[in-house]
Specification:
about 220 residues, alpha/beta, 6 helices, globular, binds manganese (II) ion
Length: about 220
Amino acid sequence: MSAPRIGVSGVVRQWDGNERTGVNAAYVRSVLAAGGVPVILSPVLGPSFAARAMDGLDGLLLTGGEDIHPALYGAELSPRCYPPSRERDLFELALFAVARQRELPILGICRGIQLVNVAMGGTLYQDLPTERPSDIAHDPGSARDARTHAVRLAAGSRAAQALGATELRVNSFHHQAVDRLAPGLVATGWSEDGVIEAAEGPAEATWLLTVQWHPEEMHAE
Ligand code: MN
Protein backbone atom coordinates (compact mmCIF):
# COMPACT_ATOMS: atom_id res chain seq x y z
CA MET A 1 0.00 0.00 0.00
CA SER A 2 1.23 3.50 -0.75
CA ALA A 3 1.74 5.91 2.12
CA PRO A 4 -1.61 7.03 3.56
CA ARG A 5 -2.51 10.69 3.07
CA ILE A 6 -3.44 12.23 6.42
CA GLY A 7 -5.33 15.51 6.70
CA VAL A 8 -3.90 17.72 9.48
CA SER A 9 -6.18 20.52 10.70
CA GLY A 10 -4.40 23.87 10.61
CA VAL A 11 -4.55 27.26 12.26
CA VAL A 12 -4.64 30.95 11.30
CA ARG A 13 -2.33 33.12 13.36
CA GLN A 14 -0.76 36.56 13.41
CA TRP A 15 2.96 36.11 12.86
CA ASP A 16 5.53 38.81 12.03
CA GLY A 17 2.67 41.25 11.51
CA ASN A 18 0.93 39.11 8.92
CA GLU A 19 -2.00 36.74 9.03
CA ARG A 20 -0.59 33.32 8.19
CA THR A 21 -1.91 29.79 8.07
CA GLY A 22 -0.19 26.50 8.84
CA VAL A 23 0.30 24.13 11.75
CA ASN A 24 2.97 23.26 14.30
CA ALA A 25 5.69 21.41 12.44
CA ALA A 26 5.70 18.67 15.09
CA TYR A 27 2.38 17.34 13.75
CA VAL A 28 3.72 17.23 10.21
CA ARG A 29 6.97 15.57 11.28
CA SER A 30 5.07 12.99 13.35
CA VAL A 31 2.82 11.94 10.48
CA LEU A 32 5.89 11.68 8.25
CA ALA A 33 7.75 9.64 10.87
CA ALA A 34 4.77 7.28 11.09
CA GLY A 35 4.90 6.68 7.33
CA GLY A 36 2.07 8.99 6.28
CA VAL A 37 1.88 11.95 3.92
CA PRO A 38 0.59 14.94 5.90
CA VAL A 39 -1.75 17.34 4.11
CA ILE A 40 -2.41 20.58 6.01
CA LEU A 41 -6.06 21.64 5.92
CA SER A 42 -6.39 25.38 6.51
CA PRO A 43 -9.49 26.76 8.23
CA VAL A 44 -9.39 29.53 5.62
CA LEU A 45 -11.03 26.99 3.30
CA GLY A 46 -14.22 27.16 5.37
CA PRO A 47 -16.75 24.40 6.04
CA SER A 48 -18.17 24.47 2.51
CA PHE A 49 -14.86 23.14 1.13
CA ALA A 50 -14.20 20.59 3.88
CA ALA A 51 -15.50 17.63 1.88
CA ARG A 52 -13.65 18.60 -1.31
CA ALA A 53 -10.43 19.22 0.64
CA MET A 54 -10.65 15.73 2.10
CA ASP A 55 -11.05 13.92 -1.21
CA GLY A 56 -8.32 11.30 -1.50
CA LEU A 57 -7.37 11.47 2.18
CA ASP A 58 -7.07 8.27 4.22
CA GLY A 59 -7.29 9.71 7.73
CA LEU A 60 -7.75 12.87 9.79
CA LEU A 61 -5.61 14.37 12.56
CA LEU A 62 -7.37 17.06 14.63
CA THR A 63 -4.69 19.22 16.28
CA GLY A 64 -4.32 21.39 19.37
CA GLY A 65 -5.03 25.09 19.72
CA GLU A 66 -7.77 27.54 20.59
CA ASP A 67 -10.58 26.87 23.04
CA ILE A 68 -13.85 25.82 21.42
CA HIS A 69 -16.72 28.29 21.68
CA PRO A 70 -18.88 27.06 24.60
CA ALA A 71 -22.07 27.88 22.69
CA LEU A 72 -21.28 24.74 20.67
CA TYR A 73 -21.94 22.68 23.79
CA GLY A 74 -24.73 24.82 25.20
CA ALA A 75 -22.74 26.84 27.75
CA GLU A 76 -22.17 30.53 28.34
CA LEU A 77 -18.74 31.88 27.43
CA SER A 78 -16.71 32.03 30.65
CA PRO A 79 -14.27 34.94 31.10
CA ARG A 80 -11.66 32.22 31.68
CA CYS A 81 -12.22 30.64 28.28
CA TYR A 82 -9.44 31.73 25.90
CA PRO A 83 -10.63 33.54 22.76
CA PRO A 84 -12.26 30.99 20.45
CA SER A 85 -12.04 30.95 16.65
CA ARG A 86 -15.40 30.54 14.98
CA GLU A 87 -13.61 29.97 11.67
CA ARG A 88 -11.64 27.07 13.07
CA ASP A 89 -14.52 25.60 15.11
CA LEU A 90 -16.85 25.40 12.12
CA PHE A 91 -14.16 24.12 9.76
CA GLU A 92 -13.05 21.32 12.09
CA LEU A 93 -16.63 20.28 12.88
CA ALA A 94 -17.12 19.94 9.12
CA LEU A 95 -13.87 17.95 8.72
CA PHE A 96 -14.95 15.62 11.52
CA ALA A 97 -18.39 15.10 9.98
CA VAL A 98 -16.86 14.26 6.60
CA ALA A 99 -14.34 11.85 8.13
CA ARG A 100 -17.09 10.08 10.07
CA GLN A 101 -19.33 9.84 7.03
CA ARG A 102 -16.46 8.35 4.99
CA GLU A 103 -15.47 6.06 7.89
CA LEU A 104 -11.90 7.38 7.96
CA PRO A 105 -9.67 6.78 10.99
CA ILE A 106 -9.46 9.86 13.21
CA LEU A 107 -6.86 10.91 15.77
CA GLY A 108 -7.60 13.90 18.01
CA ILE A 109 -4.89 15.62 20.04
CA CYS A 110 -5.54 18.13 22.88
CA ARG A 111 -8.14 20.45 21.33
CA GLY A 112 -8.82 17.38 19.15
CA ILE A 113 -10.27 15.33 22.04
CA GLN A 114 -12.35 18.36 23.00
CA LEU A 115 -13.55 18.96 19.43
CA VAL A 116 -14.58 15.33 18.97
CA ASN A 117 -16.36 15.28 22.34
CA VAL A 118 -18.28 18.46 21.50
CA ALA A 119 -19.09 17.27 17.97
CA MET A 120 -20.58 14.07 19.41
CA GLY A 121 -22.65 15.86 22.08
CA GLY A 122 -20.37 16.16 25.12
CA THR A 123 -19.33 19.19 27.17
CA LEU A 124 -16.05 20.71 28.39
CA TYR A 125 -14.61 22.31 31.47
CA GLN A 126 -13.79 25.83 30.31
CA ASP A 127 -11.01 26.23 32.87
CA LEU A 128 -9.76 23.30 34.92
CA PRO A 129 -7.96 25.24 37.69
CA THR A 130 -11.12 27.14 38.66
CA GLU A 131 -13.84 24.62 37.77
CA ARG A 132 -12.10 21.41 38.82
CA PRO A 133 -9.14 22.20 41.06
CA SER A 134 -6.65 19.40 41.72
CA ASP A 135 -3.07 18.78 42.80
CA ILE A 136 -2.04 18.03 39.22
CA ALA A 137 -0.90 20.90 37.03
CA HIS A 138 -2.27 20.25 33.54
CA ASP A 139 -0.64 23.37 32.14
CA PRO A 140 2.63 23.67 34.08
CA GLY A 141 4.44 25.65 31.39
CA SER A 142 7.16 23.02 31.03
CA ALA A 143 9.09 22.09 27.90
CA ARG A 144 6.87 20.74 25.10
CA ASP A 145 8.24 17.21 25.54
CA ALA A 146 8.47 17.19 29.38
CA ARG A 147 6.43 14.34 30.86
CA THR A 148 4.81 16.06 33.82
CA HIS A 149 1.96 13.81 34.96
CA ALA A 150 0.87 10.16 34.91
CA VAL A 151 -1.93 8.67 32.81
CA ARG A 152 -3.56 5.28 33.29
CA LEU A 153 -5.03 3.62 30.19
CA ALA A 154 -7.74 0.95 30.15
CA ALA A 155 -6.28 -2.46 29.29
CA GLY A 156 -7.21 -3.53 25.77
CA SER A 157 -8.19 0.00 24.70
CA ARG A 158 -7.05 1.48 21.40
CA ALA A 159 -4.89 3.90 23.35
CA ALA A 160 -3.18 1.06 25.24
CA GLN A 161 -2.74 -0.95 22.05
CA ALA A 162 -1.29 2.02 20.19
CA LEU A 163 1.19 2.79 22.97
CA GLY A 164 1.88 -0.75 24.15
CA ALA A 165 1.39 0.28 27.79
CA THR A 166 -1.32 0.99 30.34
CA GLU A 167 0.75 3.30 32.54
CA LEU A 168 2.71 6.22 31.16
CA ARG A 169 3.77 9.75 31.86
CA VAL A 170 2.69 12.46 29.46
CA ASN A 171 3.37 16.06 28.59
CA SER A 172 0.44 18.33 29.39
CA PHE A 173 -0.50 21.82 28.31
CA HIS A 174 -4.23 22.27 28.49
CA HIS A 175 -6.50 24.32 30.75
CA GLN A 176 -9.70 22.73 29.43
CA ALA A 177 -10.81 19.09 29.41
CA VAL A 178 -13.74 16.79 28.76
CA ASP A 179 -16.51 17.26 31.33
CA ARG A 180 -19.54 15.22 30.27
CA LEU A 181 -18.39 12.55 27.85
CA ALA A 182 -20.35 12.32 24.60
CA PRO A 183 -22.55 9.31 23.98
CA GLY A 184 -20.64 7.17 21.48
CA LEU A 185 -17.29 7.81 23.16
CA VAL A 186 -15.62 5.58 25.74
CA ALA A 187 -13.18 7.07 28.27
CA THR A 188 -9.99 4.99 28.24
CA GLY A 189 -7.38 7.22 29.90
CA TRP A 190 -7.28 9.25 33.11
CA SER A 191 -4.80 11.33 35.05
CA GLU A 192 -4.54 10.67 38.78
CA ASP A 193 -7.11 13.39 39.55
CA GLY A 194 -9.66 11.64 37.31
CA VAL A 195 -9.52 14.06 34.37
CA ILE A 196 -10.26 12.21 31.12
CA GLU A 197 -7.02 12.07 29.13
CA ALA A 198 -8.07 9.59 26.41
CA ALA A 199 -11.40 8.77 24.76
CA GLU A 200 -12.17 6.59 21.80
CA GLY A 201 -14.90 5.07 19.69
CA PRO A 202 -16.20 1.59 20.49
CA ALA A 203 -14.00 -1.33 19.42
CA GLU A 204 -16.29 -2.47 16.60
CA ALA A 205 -16.53 0.99 15.00
CA THR A 206 -14.13 2.86 12.70
CA TRP A 207 -10.81 3.74 14.38
CA LEU A 208 -11.29 6.86 16.50
CA LEU A 209 -8.81 7.78 19.21
CA THR A 210 -8.41 11.08 21.03
CA VAL A 211 -5.90 12.11 23.69
CA GLN A 212 -5.51 15.19 25.86
CA TRP A 213 -1.71 15.19 25.85
CA HIS A 214 0.68 15.91 22.93
CA PRO A 215 2.27 12.75 21.48
CA GLU A 216 3.44 14.75 18.44
CA GLU A 217 6.01 16.51 20.63
CA MET A 218 7.51 13.13 21.62
CA HIS A 219 7.56 11.34 18.27
CA ALA A 220 11.34 11.16 18.34
CA GLU A 221 10.95 8.69 21.23
MN1 MN B 1 -3.18 16.66 31.41
